[in-house]
Structure formats: C-alpha cells, structure tokens
Amino acid sequence: MSLPYPTREEIARLSARMLLEIKAVDFNAKQPFTYASGKKGPTYVDCRRIISFPRVRQTLLDFLAATIMRDAGFEAFDNIAGGETAGIPFAAMVAERLGLPMSYVRKKPKGYGRNARIEGVMTEGQRVLLVEDLTTDGGSKLSFVDAIRETGASCAHTAVIFYYGIFPETTQRLADHGVSLHHLCTWWDVLNEARESGAFDDATLTEVQTFLSDPKGWQAANG
C-alpha cells in the first residue's frame, strides 16, 4: 500500500516553488553574494524567511514530517532536537507534528549555570532526530550530533528543508559519522523550477548552472 504523501519529486518541486515565491532563494550573476566563508557565488538561500509565511511554513513542515516518517520510520524517534539557532523553530514544528518532546543544541556551552549544550530534556537511550533549516557540506551537523551523543542518546538522522546538493562529499561525510540526511529540495530543484516559472533571465540561469556544476571552479574564475 502506498503512503498518502506526494512523491519525493513533487515535494522537491513544490518546495522549490515556495522558496522562490517567498524570496528565500535568489540568483544574481552580475553581483554575486558573499558567503560566510568569504567566498562568492550567484546563489543565496535564507530559510529563516519561512517562519514569516504561515501557508508556506505549514506546507513545508508537513512535507518534512512526511519525509521523515517515510524515510526513517513512524516510530523511529523519541526526541526532536533543533540546532541553534535556525533549527529551533523548525524542530519545534516537527516535534508538534510527530507528537514528540523537543530540545535544542547550543553551538557551544553558554558559560554559566549548568554550562550545558543541550537545552530541554534529553535522556540516555533516546533516539534523537536533529532538525536544521539547511545543510551545505554537513560539517556543522557533526558538532550537534556529537553533543547529542554525549548525553547517552543516539542520533542517526538529520532532517533539513534545504540541502545544497552540490558538494558530492556531504552525504558520505555524514554517513561516515553514522548519520543519514533527509531533505526536501536542493539547488538543482530550485534551478529547474526557476526555469519553468521564468523567475530569472536565461543568462542568469546559465551562470547559476555553471556555478552549481563546479562551485570551486566558478569561484576560482570569478574571484
């Protein structure tokens, strides 16, 4: 019996459309964006915008909950943890949908009180799902996963709304740490939807495709 959820392909297409509609993603080939790393690129994503659009927010989180249950299992978790800070609201909404406790993980101990990285209640033996807004190369997830495991809980899954999908080592990096990645859409889905909707001119879309195909090469050629 098939599950009453949209296919992965339809979820990816609709998720990409919603991110474009609320301008959570943008393309600009003439004035590339500067990333936190200091490097530049013609693509930009800000999943924090999602929380300000109720209909988009509800649909994307329904999609995320469905993806988690379909891919990981219906009774696979005991606790939903959000990564500080962007993952916190999404973890709360996933926890509500799955009827589970919610906690969150600090990037580093707060330096006073219990000096803990875990806020909320997380206990030894719990199976924890780490929820974040997005992932690029998976690096930041590993620190959160390690903090969860230090409590005696297990963490073998992370779920995000947006996965860059342009760094081939990401899923292997997570897998080597014993973590499976679940996501709704990637830059390739956004690019396809942008072409279908005519959201950007052909020259911009061509430049974005060049970047997505070889990010390091594009950055080396464009400074």
TrEMBL record:
Domain of life of the organism in this record? Bacteria
Q: Which family does it belong to?
A: Belongs to the purine/pyrimidine phosphoribosyltransferase family. PyrE subfamily.
| EC identifiers of the protein | 2.4.2.10
Q: Which gene encodes it?
A: pyrE
Give a short account of what the protein does.
Catalyzes the transfer of a ribosyl phosphate group from 5-phosphoribose 1-diphosphate to orotate, leading to the formation of orotidine monophosphate (OMP).
Provide the binding site for orotate. Answer: T136
Q: Name one Pfam family in it.
A: Pribosyltran
* GO terms, molecular function: magnesium ion binding; orotate phosphoribosyltransferase activity
Q: In which pathway does it act?
A: Pyrimidine metabolism; UMP biosynthesis via de novo pathway; UMP from orotate: step 1/2
Key words of the record: Glycosyltransferase, Magnesium, Pyrimidine biosynthesis, Transferase
Q: Which species does this protein come from?
A: Paracoccus onubensis
Q: What is this protein called?
A: Orotate phosphoribosyltransferase
Which reaction equation describes what this protein catalyses? orotidine 5'-phosphate + diphosphate = orotate + 5-phospho-alpha-D-ribose 1-diphosphate
Record-level GO BP terms: 'de novo' UMP biosynthetic process; pyrimidine nucleobase biosynthetic process
Could you confirm whether the keyword Transferase appears in this record? yes
Q: How does it assemble?
A: Homodimer.
Record's PANTHER family?
Answer: OROTATE PHOSPHORIBOSYLTRANSFERASE, URIDINE 5'-MONOPHOSPHATE SYNTHASE
Q: Which residues form the Phosphoribosyltransferase domain?
A: 62-163
Query: Where does the chain cross the membrane?
Result: none
- Top-level EC class, please? transferase
Q: Which cofactors are required for activity?
A: Mg(2+)
Q: Which InterPro entries does this chain map to?
A: OPRT (IPR023031), Or_phspho_trans_dom (IPR004467), PRTase-like (IPR029057), PRTase_dom (IPR000836)
